[in-house]
Amino acid sequence: MEKQSPKKLEVPLTALKGGETAILTSIKAGHGRGQGRGWGFEKRLMDMGLTPGTKVTVVKSAPFHGPLEVLVRGSRLALGRGMAERIFVEREKE
Amino acid sequence: MTKKKLVIALAGNANVGKSVIFNHLTGLHQHIGNWPGKTVERAEGTLHFEGHTVDIVDLPGIYSLSTYSLEELISRKYIAVERPDMVINVVDASVLERNLFFTLQLMELETPMIIALNQMDIARKKGIEIDTERLEELLGIPVIPTVAIKGIGIFQLLEKAIEIIEKGNKAKPIEVKYGKEVEEKIAKLTEMVEKIQFWYPPRYVAIKLLEGDEEILKEVQRIEPQIISTAEKLANEVEKFHGHSCSTVVTSEQYETAGCIAREAQKLVPPIKPPMEEKLHNLTTHKILGYPIMAFSLLLVFYFIFSFGGYTSELLSNFFYGWEPLFASVFGTEIIGKLVWGGIIEGIIAGVTIALPYIAPFYLILYFLEDSGYLSRIAFLMDNAMHKIGLHGKAFIPMMLGYGCNVPACLGCRIMETERERLLAAFVTTLVPCAARTVIILGLVGQFIGIQWALTLYIVDLLIIFFLGRLAFKTLPGEPTALIMEMHDYRVPHLKTVLKQTWFRLAEFIKIAFPLIIVGSLAIKLAEVLGLLEPIATLLSSVTVMWLGLPAITGITLIFGVLRKELTLIMLATLLGTTNFAHVLTPVQMIVFTLVAMFYIPCIATIAALVREFGWKKALFITVFEIVFAIVLGGVVLRLLALIT
Questions:
Q1: Residue B280: C-alpha distances to residues A66, B290, B490 (Å)
Q2: Mean pLDDT to the nearest integer, A45-68
Q3: DSSP 3-state assignment of B207?
Q4: Beta-strand relationship, B143-145 and B113-118
Q5: pLDDT at B83
C-alpha cells in the first residue's frame, strides 16, 4: 500500500546533509521487509512532532552510521538511523 | 468546616520540570511506589493549603496520550477513571508547540485543568517571549507562568488550582476542530458511543476509534462490535480522501492547532546572549571530540565513586566490626552468637557498606547527569554501538551503571520502551563486572599475574557481553526498537530534586537487597555452623576440581560469593589462611577462578532485582543460564590456557 509520488523528489531523511532543512512527506514504518516496527513507532514519531508537512532540519549524524540529530518544531531529537531511513522528506526549493 | 480531600495530578512531557514542581508542592511528604501491578512509578505527596488537604499525583512524563507505552496508558486511564479534581499540565515554554500538542490531548479528555508554563527563563534565553494572557485566551484555560527551579510561580499555581476547583473555570476550554470531513465522522461516531457506558468522553473515544487506538478498539469491541465496523469504514474514507492513514491525519491536525496557538502566543526575538548550552551541546555530541569527552567524564565519575566508596566502605566496616567483641560478650561465641553476628549483623554490614559508599554517590551523580541533559547525549553517541546487540543508545546507561552495581542497573532498565528490551538490557547488565567483581579482578589477577591480564579479562568480558547479548537478541521473540529520544537543552539540575531522587532510589535498593542479603548470609552461616560446608564443597568438587581444576575449597567461597561477589576472594583468603594467593593458586587457576566468579551467577541482590522487574521465571532462567555458562567457560578456558602454557 506504499505510495510513491514520482513528481516530487522524495528522499529519506538520511540523505540530507548536516544543516539541511526539508519538508516531511511520509513515514514508511511498519510495512514490509519483515521488519514490522509497527504502527506504534509511526505514531510515536508523529507524537514527537514529525507529522507530514513539518519542517525538519538535520543537524548532524553520529559517526559510523549512528543516529541523526534533528530539529523539529523547536525541539531537538535523536533518531536511530534505521528509523530515519523510513522517514521521507522533500527538499525545499532553492 | 471540614473540607474534602482534593486530588491534583501533574501531567506533561518528560523533562519539563514536573518533578521539580512536585517537590516544591509536596516537600517531604511524598511517597513513591508503583502503579498497581505495573513497573511504572507512581509518585504521590500530600500538602495542606488554606485548610485543604491536597493529594498530588505526579504522572509519568509522556509526549502523548496514545498507547505507545504503558506510561501513556496509565496516565490517560488515571485521568479518565479516577477523575482528579484538577490536572496541572506542566508545559515547557521553550518548546511550546510540542508541549501544547499534549495539552490539546488532555483537553480532549475533558478534565478540569490549568497550565503551569514552566522554564520561562530558558525560553527567554532562547529568545522566546510568551504572552501568557493571549495563550490563556486561545486555550480557554488559565495559564500560570513559573520558573520551578527557582520556586517562582508555584504558590500562584496552587492558589489558582484551588480557586478553580472551588469556583470553576470562567472561560470555556476550546475544542480542537478537525477538517470538515473528519468532523462529520467524529460526530457520527460520537453519537453511537454516547449510547454505551465508557470511561472516556464520547468525542474522545470517537477520535481514538478513527485513529485505531488499540486499547479503545478492544474495549469498544467488547461492548458494541457494531461501532468498530462503522469506525473502520469511516477511517477508510478519511484515508482515501487524504492519502494518509487516519491516525496521521488526526495527529497532523492536532499539531496544526498546537502550532497555530504557539505562533500566536509567542514572539521570537534574538536570544539574549550567545547560548553556552548550544556550544556545550555541539562539543559533547561532536563526532570526534564527543567520545574522548564521554570517556573522560565517565572515568572521572568511576574514579571518584571507587575512591570515595573504597574509603568510606572501609571506615564503615571498621566501625561496625569494632562492635564485634561487645556482641560476642552478649551473645557468646556459640551457635547463637555465630548466627546472630555472622548471619544477621554481617548481612546488614554487607548491605550498608555497599549501599552508602557506592550506591548513594552513584545515583547522585547519575541523576545529576540525567537532569543536566548529558545522559541523553551519551545515549546519542552510543546508539550505534548498542545496536550491535540489538539495543538502542539508551541501554548504554544501565550498562554503565552496571560497572558500579548490577542492582541499580537492572532497575535502570526501566528507561527502555518495551518489555523485551528491558529484559535484554537487564540480562546484558548482569554480565557487566560490577565494583565487587572489579575487586576480584584487580585483587587477584591484577595483583598476582599482572595488570595486563586484568585488562584482558575486561576485554574478554566485553566480548562475552557482545556475544551473549547478540545471542539473546536473536533468540528473544519480538522486534528491535529504534532510538527516538529528545535531547533537551542543557540546564543546571535542581539539587533538591536530585537529592530526593537519590534518596528514593537508595531506599528502593535497601528494600530489595537487604532482606535477601540477610536471609542469604543467615542460611550460609547456618550451613557453616551445622558443618555442611565441607560436604557441599566435596559435592561440588566434581565441577570445581575435576572440570575447573581449582582447589576444592573454592566451592565454599563460590557459595559465599552469591551474597556479594567480593566474598569469593575474602573467603578464599580466610579459608586458605593467607592473602598471598600466589602460594596457593597457579596463575591459570587464578584466571579461571576470576572468570567463573565474574559470570557464575548474579549476586543475590541482583537476582532479587530481576525477580521484581521480570518475575521468578525469567530471573531463574537468567541465573541458571549464567551458572551453566560460567562453568562451561571456565573449563574451556582452563583447557585453552593449558595448550598455551
A1: 20, 10, 8
A2: 92
A3: helix
A4: parallel
A5: 93
Identify the CATH number of the domain in which residue B15 sits: 3.40.50.300
Interface contact flag, B63 A48, Cβ < 8 Å: yes
The CATH superfamily label for domain A10-91 reads Ferrous iron transport protein A (FeoA) (2.30.30.90)
Identify whether residues B27 and B139 lie together within a single domain: yes
Q: Is the pLDDT of residue A34 over 70?
A: no
Name every residue whose Cβ is closer than 8 Å to that of residue A42 and which is 6 or more positions away in sequence: A27, A29, A30, B245, B247, B248
B267 φ/ψ angles, rounded to the nearest 5 degrees: -120, 130
**Interatomic CA distance for residues B119 and B148, integer angstroms:** 7
Within chain B, which residues score under 70 in pLDDT?
1-3, 37, 273-274
Which residue range is the domain that position B212 belongs to? 180-268
Please tell me the distance from the alpha carbon of residue B59 to that of residue B89, in angstroms, as a whole number: 10
Phi, psi of B34, rounded to the nearest 5 degrees:
-115, 155
A positions 24-83 inside 8 Å of B (CB): 26-27, 35-49, 51-54, 60, 62-67, 69, 73-83
pTM: 0.88
State the virtual CA torsion across B460, B466, B470, B472 in degrees, nearest 10.
70
Do B136 and B261 reside in the same domain of the chain? Answer: no
The answer to whether residues B90 and B17 touch, using CB atoms and an 8 Å cutoff, is yes
Same domain, B160 and B33: yes
Q: What is the pLDDT of residue A8?
A: 64
Residues belonging to chain B: 645
Residue B582 CA to residue B580 CA, distance in Å, equals 5
Pick the last residue of a domain from B209, B233, B268. B268
Q: What pLDDT does residue A33 have?
A: 33
Residues of chain B numbered 55-94 and touching chain A (CB < 8 Å): 63-64, 66-68, 94
The residue among B268, B285, B308 that closes a domain is: B268
